[in-house]
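Dear H.,

Thanks for agreeing to be a second pair of eyes. The structure we're designing against is below in C-alpha cell form, covering all 392 positions.
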C-alpha cells in the first residue's frame, strides 16, 4: 500500500486531495461529547495542507438513512475540526464546493445524506464516486484515513479508491500495523478483555481469538449469557438465551475468565437502588449493570504478567456513575500492565469513550483505536474492502 509519505514525496502543492476521515462522533444536541476521532484525523489533514494541498474531506455522522436529516449535520464537527487545525474549514455539499486556495480545507456535509454512498448496487455507488472524483480535477489523489469505515464497501471508502491514485493516511496505516501485531506478532502471554452488551456481537471474534490467546476476560452485559451457561440465575440482567449453548462450548476452552460478583440494580437508572452480590446470588427482578470489586481483582490478576492485551467493550454501564467502577478498575489494570511492559490496544468505540469519560490517561495505553467494528472484523480474519482496495 502506498503511504501518505509517498504522496507527499510526489508533491501535492496545487492538487486537490480527497480524504476519507472518520468523524462519526457522539453528539448531545450540537455538543460533541467525545472528539477523539476528530483529533485522530488532524495529523493527515495537517500534513496535506502544510504541503500545499487543497483538501476535501468526506465523512459521515450517525445513520441518516440516505436523507438530509440535519440532526446528523457535520456542522459541529466542522467547527471543532477548524479549532484543532488552526485554520478555517468550509462546510459544503457536493454541489456547492467553492473555489479554494492551496492549503484550504473543505468538509463535505454528511456523505450518507446521499443514499448512493451505502448502496449495494455497484453502478449507483460508482456514479456517486465519479461525482466525488470530479471535485479533484485532473490531478487529484485519494487518502484513506477513516479506519472505522474500512470494513464498508461504500462509495467514499472503496469506489473512490478505484478511481484515483490511493494512499493510506497516517491513522489507517497505524491501525493496520497495530492489528497486524495483534494477529501475527503478539507477544505471550496474550490476554483479551471483552465487554459490551451482546454475545452475538462478539461471537465471531471470540471464536477467532480463543485459540490464539492465553486468557479471555468477559465482562459487560454479555457476561450474563456465560453465567447462565454455567447454570446461574441472572435475574432481569441482559440475556441472550439463544447463545447459551454457544457460550457453553466456548467455556470448555478453560481460558475464559468470568466475573465472580456483580453490581445489581432494581432499575436501569443512575438513581436505582444497588447492591453488590455474588454471581450465584442475583435476586429475581434485579439486573446486573457492572462487574463487582472482587471481579476487578480477579480480572487484574488474570492480566498480571500479560505481554499483549486487547480490550474491546466496557465492563458495565459506565455512563452512569454507580456502574462505572468496573470499567475504571479494569482499565487501570491495563494501564498498570502497560507500564510494566505490555503492549495494550483499546479497541475503539465505547472503550475509547470510557477512557476519556473516566479521566484515564490516554498515554497509559499503547494504542487507542478509532475503529471498533473494523478492528473486530480484522481480528476475525475478514477481508476489509477499504484496505484490500488500497493494496491493489
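And this is the sequence the design step returned. I haven't edited it by hand at all.
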Amino acid at each position: 500500500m502506498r503511504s501518505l509519505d509517498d504522496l507527499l514525496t510526489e508533491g501535492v502543492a496545487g492538487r486537490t486531495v480527497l480524504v476519507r476521515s472518520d468523524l462519526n462522533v457522539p453528539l448531545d444536541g450540537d455538543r460533541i461529547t467525545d472528539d477523539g476521532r476528530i483529533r485522530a484525523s488532524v495529523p493527515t489533514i495537517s500534513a496535506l495542507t502544510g504541503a500545499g494541498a487543497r483538501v476535501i474531506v468526506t465523512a459521515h455522522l450517525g445513520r441518516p438513512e440516505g436523507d438530509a436529516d440535519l440532526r446528523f449535520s457535520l456542522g459541529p464537527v466542522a467547527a471543532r475540526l477548524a479549532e484543532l487545525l488552526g485554520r478555517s474549514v468550509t462546510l459544503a455539499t457536493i454541489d456547492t464546493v467553492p473555489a479554494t486556495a492551496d492549503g484550504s480545507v473543505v468538509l463535505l456535509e454528511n456523505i450518507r445524506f446521499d443514499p448512493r454512498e451505502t448502496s449495494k448496487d455497484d453502478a449507483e455507488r460508482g456514479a456517486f464516486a465519479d461525482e466525488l472524483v470530479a471535485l479533484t480535477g485532473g490531478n487529484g489523489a485519494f487518502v484513506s484515513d477513516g479506519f472505522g469505515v474500512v470494513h464498508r464497501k461504500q462509495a467514499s471508502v472503496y469506489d473512490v479508491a478505484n478511481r484515483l491514485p490511493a494512499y493510506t493516511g497516517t491513522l489507517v496505516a497505524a491501525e493496520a500495523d497495530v492489528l497486524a501485531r495483534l494477529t501475527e506478532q503478539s507477544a505471550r502471554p496474550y490476554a483479551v478483555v471483552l465487554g459490551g452488551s451482546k454475545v452475538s456481537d462478539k461471537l465471531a471474534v471470540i471464536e477467532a481469538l480463543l485459540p490464539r490467546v492465553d486468557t479471555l476476560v468477559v465482562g459487560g452485559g454479555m457476561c450474563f449469557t456465560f453465567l447462565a451457561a454455567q447454570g446461574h440465575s441472572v435475574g432481569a440482567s441482559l440475556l441472550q438465551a439463544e447463545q447459551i449453548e454457544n457460550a457453553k462450548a466456548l467455556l470448555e476452552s478453560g481460558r475464559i475468565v468470568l466475573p465472580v460478583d456483580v453490581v445489581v440494580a432494581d432499575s436501569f437508572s443512575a438513581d436505582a437502588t444497588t447492591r453488590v452480590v455474588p454471581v450465584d446470588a442475583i435476586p429475581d427482578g434485579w439486573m446486573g449493570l457492572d462487574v463487582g470489586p472482587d471481579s476487578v481483582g480477579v480480572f487484574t490478576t488474570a492480566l498480571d504478567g500479560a505481554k499483549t492485551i486487547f480490550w474491546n467493550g466496557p465492563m458495565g454501564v459506565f455512563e452512569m456513575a454507580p456502574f462505572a467502577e468496573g470499567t475504571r478498575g479494569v482499565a487501570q489494570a491495563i494501564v498498570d500492565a502497560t507500564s510494566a511492559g505490555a503492549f495494550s490496544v483499546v479497541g475503539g468505540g465505547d472503550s475509547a469513550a470510557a477512557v476519556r469519560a473516566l479521566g484515564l490517561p490516554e498515554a497509559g495505553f499503547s494504542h487507542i483505536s478509532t475503529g471498533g467494528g473494523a478492528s473486530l472484523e480484522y481480528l476475525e480474519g475478514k477481508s476489509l474492502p477499504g484496505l484490500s482496495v488500497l493494496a491493489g
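Two observations from my side: The two ends are 7 Å apart (CA to CA). The chain has a mean pLDDT of 95.

Warmly,
E.
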